[in-house]
From TrEMBL:
Pathway: Amino-acid biosynthesis; L-methionine biosynthesis via de novo pathway; L-homoserine from L-aspartate: step 3/3; Amino-acid biosynthesis; L-threonine biosynthesis; L-threonine from L-aspartate: step 3/5
Organism: Desulforamulus putei DSM 12395
Gene Ontology process terms (BP): methionine biosynthetic process; threonine biosynthetic process
UniProt cofactor(s): a metal cation
Keyword Transcription regulation annotated: no
Reactions the enzyme catalyzes: L-homoserine + NADP(+) = L-aspartate 4-semialdehyde + NADPH + H(+)
Protein name: Homoserine dehydrogenase
Family per record: Belongs to the homoserine dehydrogenase family.
The entry's keywords: Amino-acid biosynthesis, Metal-binding, Methionine biosynthesis, NAD, NADP, Oxidoreductase, Sodium, Threonine biosynthesis
Length: 430
């Protein structure tokens, strides 16, 4: 009789549907690569009545977790529900029933990775989460296995598809923020609560996961400095263009002697930087290892089939481990405890846009404050003077963030300064 490994799928939304489709369409190829057939036996959803848009066998849907976790035939549970509750309880339940787990859930992995890994280890199960970062790009397996011989020095890149799609449309077509967010939602890129995307939290979870693996230390999510794209205006995009930059939301993690630096924020990068060409829903991750040097990984960071591609590869690995009786062979790799540096301890160049009163001496008073805080200015441009107000655009040299923050505190007190309209870090150039 043909050997089959049975799977329980939790969720049949964007990603779940993609997993179902790939396992069906590439069935023969997958069977040959793994050595056995992989078959979805049950799918847990919220609503049994929803039109799923794909033909499903009678009785495959359930709303009862026990139909999956209590079924001894099901060896692998795939969690693509999203969110922390009830997904975390469901995954723990699956692991405690001895099932290997594949998940795309960065919220859960970033916040509860330690607990999940403990449960996987004590139950001798696999816990795979390739799709949780950068959709279809195989970056987690790359860091954990392919680059395992390196000391990783830096990991950074575009790791949120929704915001990259939005910034691309806003930059290239001048689209409105809310319109383009709605488009990203309609395409299935955005999280169920898109604040996670535009607020930078989704990217923060992903860079926390990547940095934990890269530097072998657990990165608590609350220590990841996080800024989203909600403050980016058409004005900033236009000034960036004029100054030779493009704005991208980057996740940045660096290993420094004093500790690790992990942050997410909109960033000016030079137009000729390789990340500048990464548009639409694409993601790209740079990794610098002390042996391999610079590497870059590029692909679709969200969407049904790209994300499901990563999930299915994890399912295949879990199935191989089951066949060889070695589930759990690659577990948690956080065996160090490194401090996470505060944002004030990081270094960057800064673009600063100020609204000021349009009168003589204003620029000199602002430059003096920056000078007092050892922030040297690379360029200063006065924009849109009306006779009453003017806009100043400044770019600093590379300085410590704390000095910039201290200078801005003092600048806000100047009577000639109406508003610090925006501050954006500049990376990717000497
Ligand atoms: P969707 O919202 O499209 O789908 C969620 C699915 O889970 C639905 O089928 C829903 O059931 C089901 N579900 C949710 N809550 C429950 C519950 N309490 N009980 C039973 N079923 C439930 O999400 P996505 O497919 O977009 O995302 C899934 C996961 O993948 C998330 O963790 C997300 O962050 C991650 N991810 C998503 C990517 C993407 O491009 N969309 C890319 C990378 C990762 P019903 O259909 O009945 O409502
Ligand atoms: N909402 C996420 C994004 C999905 O846009 O990148 C992929 O993790």
């Amino acid at each position: 009789m043909e050997q089959v490994i049975k799977i329980g799928l939790l969720g049949l939304g964007t990603v779940g549907r993609g997993v179902y489709r790939i396992l069906a369409e590439n069935q023969e190829n997958i069977r040959q690569r793994v050595g056995v057939k992989l078959e979805i036996k049950k799918i847990m959803v919220r609503s049994l009545d929803k039109d799923r848009g794909i033909p499903l066998p009678e009785g495959i849907l359930t709303t009862n977790l026990g139909d999956i976790t209590n079924d001894p035939e099901i060896k692998i549970v795939v969690e693509v529900l999203g969110g922390i509750h009830p997904a975390l309880d469901y995954v723990l339940e699956a692991l405690n029933h001895g099932k290997s787990v594949v998940t795309a859930n960065k919220d859960m992995v970033a916040e509860h990775g330690q607990r999940l890994f403990k449960a996987a280890q004590s139950n001798k199960c696999d816990l795979f989460f390739e799709a949780s970062v950068a959709g279809g790009i195989p970056i987690i397996r790359t860091l954990k296995q392919s680059l395992a011989g390196n000391r990783i020095e830096e990991v950074f890149g575009i790791i949120n598809g929704t915001t990259n799609y939005m910034l691309t449309k806003m930059t290239q077509e001048g689209c409105d923020f809310d319109d383009v967010l709605r488009e990203a939602q309609a395409k299935g890129y955005a999280e169920s609560d898109p604040t996670a995307d535009v607020g930078g939290f989704d990217a923060a979870r992903k860079i926390a996961i990547l940095a934990s693996i890269a530097f072998n230390t657990r990165i608590p999510l609350h220590q990841v400095y996080t800024e989203g794209i909600t403050k980016i205006t058409a004005q900033d995009i236009s000034y960036a263009n004029e100054l030779g930059y493009i704005i991208k939301l980057l996740g940045i993690a660096k290993d420094r002697p004093e500790g690790v630096e992990v942050r997410v924020h909109p960033t000016f990068i030079p137009k000729n930087h390789p990340l500048a060409a990464v548009g639409d829903v694409f993601n790209a991750v740079f990794v610098r290892g002390n042996a391999v040097g610079d590497t870059m990984f590029y692909g679709r960071g969200a969407g049904e089939l790209p994300t499901a591609s990563a999930v299915v590869a994890d399912i295949m690995d879990a199935a191989r481990d089951i066949l060889r009786n070695v589930p759990g062979i690659i577990g948690c790799t956080c065996f160090k405890e490194r401090p996470v540096l505060a944002i004030g301890e990081t270094f960057s160049k800064y673009y600063i846009r100020l609204q000021v009163t349009d009168k003589p001496g204003v620029l000199a008073s602002i430059a003096l404050v920056f000078g007092n805080k050892e922030v040297s200015l690379k360029s200063v441009i006065q924009k849109e003077a009306t006779g009453k107000t003017a806009e100043l655009v400044l770019v600093t040299h590379r300085v410590q963030e704390q000095n910039v923050q201290d200078a801005l505190m003092d600048i806000k007190q100047l009577s000639s300064v109406i508003e610090v309209a925006n501050v954006i870090r500049v990376e990717g150039e000497e």
